[in-house]
RNA sequence: GCGCCCGUAGCUCAGUUGGAUAGAGCACCAGACUACGAAUCUGGGGGUCGGGAGUUCGAAUCUCUCCGGGCGCGCCA
């Protein structure tokens, strides 16, 4: 389906036929349409290994290249590029392919069913998700959709950090609110506990379920059960927030459960067997020595053997595991579950942990399982250009739910992947409600709605002509030939390559840019019809031409809707 | 002090994994509606790709080094 791949195979066959060695060369869209449709650097790449000038090699191959199916012309240009122009028959065949594939155009089997684990969100279960979580949630979810669409078997996962001091604080916070709700006058909430009304709600539910049975017992007795109760309540909250956003992991892995079943011991035993754990003393960080620094002997992982800067501690001085030890065990578990690729989606504040985690995975998988860690930078929440103030300390922050309720899930989802994950993103509540080109969600959906609109109108104009995509595949598509129409077809035919590239790079934002550009091409072509009515899609009295052009409209609609489906965004059929 | 990320038009950002003359949008200027939906479109000006050096046929992209911004830096997760 990705015609660049097909052409590369054809070109490679010509290379072999003239007796040149194989090489990794590129087949790409020509940068300038004046150059042609497709360009390859094969002659320049081969010139290095063959020790002959690119031009000479190109001349050697040119007659073979011109004979490739679908190639209308091939020319040598510039420093040794070979530019191809593809035949109109070739482009019409692409269009037919789109009409045949429908919403599935662009799907492929690149991944060949390989198992990929994508872990995302993994927010601590201490409260509802805030707007900062939206980016990682959507990024992970869209990346998962994208990987599935190119043939990977994807498992979407959430790691619940339910084993540390934070969930103890959560349990104490719940107990405080519980006592409060049962009538005790407690005054201000002690520092270190979680404010926020959601725990008042949880306390009231607790009373409904358990009455006052946790009131008069010592902390050692109420803490473990209330911790479980609180984590469960918070995870319910979080899951519901995620569902509101259209995000749904299928696997929720509990750190507590992992530790309880000996996962940490197993992972560390594996590392110990391979001689990667030792007792040692770390140097203080240079130039920033903490005031309370004391040399301390710790259990360390030899991360430096796998590219990290220092060896990393696995055990705290009180004998319990560090967070890193738990994460090592968790990734060991993922490796043992047989994933070929691991992807973690983290917030920017965790970027300091990338190297050590990758070192651990490299060590535990003997270099076989790549771990790609995608860092999501901050989202600057604005309203009409003004930053929205939030105070997490006071428990007042803009929740994910607030934002989804305000602008809708489709808008949040699309906007979160309109930037590369590793650059900060401005999210302006006023702007995304605008119906203008400033608002990319609107602009893309508007293009789709226009497609739907013209299809409705056409059916009214020709009540007896079948305009379904299946019928249009056989329509006289050769009636298409206007340069604007061919531009659109070329743009459409580039979709599979865009999907493949985005999937290989784990960069879903590329799809957003593609869709914006495709929408732009479509709007532009639309307006050519304003200036020249002969270019409109619906031509009264010419059902054949209308049918051919509606084939193009259907194709645009399919690609936009298929792209939006990867984003998990509805393709609107009308704008209001 | 060290590590990672970022630095591209006045602003917000792309740049197809090293390719040809670096591209969009916003803003600014000049135009296009008795409409297949003008919520849009057409044209114009605007650049030392943070600076410098290197690698090669060729660098925004790779290496080194400075400058600037963000995040992080042994018992927080």
Major β-sheet annotation? 5 strands, parallel
User: Looking at this structure, what is the CATH superfamily of the domain at 440-567?
Assistant: Isoleucyl-tRNA Synthetase, Domain 1
Count of DSSP-assigned helices: 20
Name the structural class. alpha/beta
What's the number of extended β-strand segments? 15
Q: What is the straight-line distance between the termini?
A: 36 Å
Care to describe what's here?
Among the domains are: 3-86, Arginyl tRNA synthetase N-terminal domain (Gyrase A, domain 2, 2-Layer Sandwich), CATH 3.30.1360; 165-244, no CATH class; 440-567, Isoleucyl-tRNA Synthetase, Domain 1 (Orthogonal Bundle), CATH 1.10.730. The chain has 576 residues and is of the alpha/beta class. α18 (495-505) packs antiparallel against α19 (509-531). The protein has helices at residues 3-17, 42-50, 54-66, 88-101, 132-149, 165-181, 197-210, 219-244, 255-260, 263-273, 323-336, 354-364, 400-407, 409-416, 440-461, 469-472, 483-493, 495-505, 509-531, 543-567, and strands at 27-29, 38-40, 71-77, 81-86, 115-119, 153-160, 251-254, 277-281, 297-301, 312-313, 341-347, 371-376, 379-383, 386-387, 425-428. The strands form 4 sheets. Strands 7-6-5-11-12 form a 5-stranded parallel β-sheet, sandwiched between helices. The chain has a 4-stranded antiparallel β-sheet with strand order 1-2-4-3. Strands 8-9-10 form a 3-stranded antiparallel β-sheet. A hairpin with a 3-residue loop joins β3 (71-77) and β4 (81-86). It binds one RNA strand of 77 nucleotides through α2, α6, β10, α11 and α15.
